[in-house]
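Fig. S4 source data, part A: sequence.
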Amino acid sequence: MDASDGGRERRKEQSMSAVGAASVSYFESARRHFTDAGTLLSSSRLANAGQLFGIAAECGIKAILVASKVPVDHEGSIGRMQGQKGKGFKAHWPQLGQTLIDLAGAIPDSRTATTYLSTLSNLAHFSDWLIDHRYWRDAALPLTSVAHWQVAAAEVMAALDQAKEDGIL
């Protein structure tokens, strides 16, 4: 390992040591990504706007799940619940949507989860959203779906606003 590799390793270790549950806010990240998606959309940057609408919605869902007592690890990452196989809630769209259906009964505070998740009638819009779109050529992206993703993400933001107003977040 040369000197530059050692420097990179030290920086990585330092940045990882700063990460923890206190560093993570799914609510704040959802809001940030949604706002940035709107800015990109207004500049006709559909590809990245669409990516951020999906990420904003994921973060918003995870904020609701954490408020519903779904456990997070020592780094603040939401994942599998006890005895669960697969990625659990750490999944991306469209798998996250299916996980919400499959694991709804396993959410510790299902009343809170149901209160807010039941208001989200447009999550199916993310059925063609993929985290891997970030690597795709522009011509291959489903850019006609961006407006639908925006609607679904806005719905998640409204649920977050209500949860915050209700004192849940």
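Fig. S4 source data, part B ends here. The two ends are 46 Å apart (CA to CA).
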